[in-house]
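FAQ

Q: What does a record look like?
A: Structure on top, sequence underneath. For example:
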């Protein structure tokens, strides 16, 4: 899940220096170890981190009872309050639920067991995805707890690849709208439509897409709303972002997908995609309206198309706290894996030779981050070599180069070797690191990997293309061809590999280990901007959690099952950097490391049932009235 197949790059500028020294990885708590042990295809209890609410007074505190002004069927119809058969006897009485529920009071564990059985009975992955969507609309706590307890099994159901199938079938599976639908024919209504979702303090995190480049399946038009929904699910699952304080948005600009245009059930605008000045005005109207209405919200751009993604990010990064996972998330997680690999191989970043095969969105984005992490005056020879269809990128390719490829084009006079294909470049450059973002299956042949391994002691090889059918090489082959010496990370999950009686873990460059923690840090600090140094802090925090730092046969990146714990470390690093740069706007951020960690944990939403406290409607907040996360007038 490292990146989605796209033909061109998006960039990110890092500071000129990045230390490769690591502090000792923070020991995972008993909670996170227990969580890892419970991630299986069968439900087992997962106990959330025990909180000591020193910071229970905070607005985002998750300790103690919740105010609720709803009763009866209205309460049962509000996903973030609903406990179903889990309402205890006193709440059934106080909130007028007697007669609306079966007599038996179920524990959350029993409900998870029942829901898992129902989930397992679905005939295929898409049916399971639809079941989970239905469950989320009924009971948020149960939904997230079910996934949390079965994360390994369900991750591919709630996200890629199954979510891609759901998006492709959005108009046919449509039952209930979720999120904010804005369309380019009604730019004048954008502000009012967004305003329905709350007051200025109600929204923390917005994910917005225009649906043009979805999960490697291309233009899906209005169906892109589901990628905004799915990304927000991951922020809650992986970093405890409060689910009723998020807003998924789709900017419907039409579609160039002929299949959708010819489908009489398609729910979006049936017109070719609008581009140019009209498009830019639409996007800007959204951004400015969102900032005016929800000034504390962090904006996450997702799956915008090639002509727009990078320039939109570049346009707004200097002005607002915003992020693009396809640009920044992919680069952060790959760089973290590389840093861990270099630590194991005892190399310095500025000394390594890097070849990137596939010079599109992901490839040049990763190259930018590596380049900018090296000292500004490093030898030009240490820039990553980028290889694409014509071979090594050369200045003589001129107009064939994209804007992002040009910095990596070599002067023809400086290249005195055959550079027409990857093998020739490997023979000449003798790289320490080989990264694949080509979506060309089996591109890393035995000859290529063996050639690389003949020149370096611990070759670092990252076949990142996904889905699995597109990977450049199978990790077990890479391991065999290098006699167990390769340090490997992939874009999709793979089982451990063996050589000479030893088993080696294969790290997955999963963006979900990174972007939720970055978002959490930005939300809690209420940062003015997401700076380059904050992203570097996130990379170092993730790399410091690498199991390979303790044992070189372990993975270069931590497993996604530990992602909530990882997110705490990333958020802490991001917040500290925001404070140091004077970007944090939240008051009272603790300076003490222990207090800061507890401050973060107390504000992370957990899938547990909290007691309800009755309040009068006239005195109730929007949350207590069940209006959070839904459009209301």
């Amino acid at each position: 899940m490292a990146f989605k197949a796209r033909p061109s790059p998006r960039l990110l500028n890092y500071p000129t220096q990045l230390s490769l020294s690591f502090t000792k990885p923070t020991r995972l708590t008993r909670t996170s170890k227990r969580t890892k042990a419970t991630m299986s295809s069968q439900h087992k209890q997962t106990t959330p981190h025990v909180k000591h609410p020193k910071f229970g007074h905070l607005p985002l505190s998750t300790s103690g009872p919740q105010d609720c002004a709803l009763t009866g069927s209205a309460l049962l119809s509000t996903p973030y309050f609903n406990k179903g058969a889990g309402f205890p006897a006193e709440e059934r009485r106080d909130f007028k639920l007697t007669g609306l529920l079966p007599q038996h009071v179920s524990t959350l564990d029993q409900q998870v067991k029942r829901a898992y059985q129902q989930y397992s009975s679905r005939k295929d992955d898409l049916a399971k995805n639809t079941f989970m969507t239905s469950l989320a609309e009924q009971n948020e706590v149960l939904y997230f707890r079910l996934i949390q307890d079965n994360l390994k099994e369900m991750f591919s159901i709630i996200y890629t690849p199954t979510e891609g199938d759901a998006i492709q079938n959005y108009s046919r599976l449509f039952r209930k709208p979720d999120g904010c639908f804005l369309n380019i024919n009604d730019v004048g209504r954008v502000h009012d439509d967004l305003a329905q979702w709350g007051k200025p303090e109600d929204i923390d995190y917005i994910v917005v897409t225009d649906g043009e480049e979805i999960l490697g399946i291309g233009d899906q038009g209005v169906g892109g709303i589901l990628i905004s929904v799915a990304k927000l699910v991951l922020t809650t699952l992986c970093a405890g972002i409060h689910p009723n304080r998020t807003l998924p948005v789709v900017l419907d600009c039409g579609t160039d997908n002929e299949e959708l245009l010819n489908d009489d059930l398609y729910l979006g605008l049936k017109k070719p995609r609008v581009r140019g000045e009209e498009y830019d005005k639409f996007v800007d109207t959204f951004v400015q309206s969102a900032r005016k209405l929800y000034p504390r919200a962090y904006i996450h751009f997702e799956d915008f198309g090639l002509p727009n993604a990078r320039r939109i990010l570049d346009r707004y990064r200097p002005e607002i706290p915003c992020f693009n996972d396809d640009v920044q998330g992919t680069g952060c997680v790959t760089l973290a894996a590389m840093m861990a690999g270099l630590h194991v191989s005892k190399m310095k970043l500025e000394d390594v030779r890097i070849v990137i095969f596939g010079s599109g969105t992901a490839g040049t984005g990763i190259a930018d981050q590596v380049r900018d992490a090296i000292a500004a005056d490093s030898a030009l020879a240490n820039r990553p070599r980028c290889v694409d269809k014509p071979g090594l990128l050369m200045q003589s390719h001129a107009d064939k180069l994209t804007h992002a490829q040009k910095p990596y084009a070599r002067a023809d006079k400086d290249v005195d070797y055959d550079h027409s294909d990857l093998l020739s470049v490997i023979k000449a450059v003798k790289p320490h690191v080989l990264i694949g973002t080509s979506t060309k299956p089996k591109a890393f042949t035995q000859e290529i990997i063996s050639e690389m391994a003949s020149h370096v002691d611990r070759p670092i090889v990252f076949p990142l293309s996904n889905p699995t059918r597109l990977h450049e090489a199978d990790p077990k082959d890479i391991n065999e061809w290098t006699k167990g010496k390769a340090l490997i990370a992939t874009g999709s999950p793979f089982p451990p590999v063996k050589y000479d009686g030893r088993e080696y873990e294969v790290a997955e460059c999963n963006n979900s280990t990174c972007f939720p923690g970055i978002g959490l840090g930005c939300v809690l600090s209420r940062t003015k901007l997401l700076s380059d140094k904050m992203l570097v802090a996130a990379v170092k925090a993730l790399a410091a959690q690498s199991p390979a730092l303790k044992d070189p046969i372990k993975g270069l990146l931590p497993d996604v099952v530990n992602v909530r714990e990882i997110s705490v470390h990333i958020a802490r690093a991001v917040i500290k950097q925001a404070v140091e740069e004077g970007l944090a706007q939240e008051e009272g951020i603790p300076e003490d490391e222990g207090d800061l960690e507890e401050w973060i944990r107390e504000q992370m939403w957990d899938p547990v049932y909290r007691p309800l406290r009755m309040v009068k409607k006239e005195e109730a907040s929007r949350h207590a009235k069940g209006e959070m996360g839904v459009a209301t007038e």
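Q: Is there anything notable about this one?
A: The longest helix spans residues 325-344.
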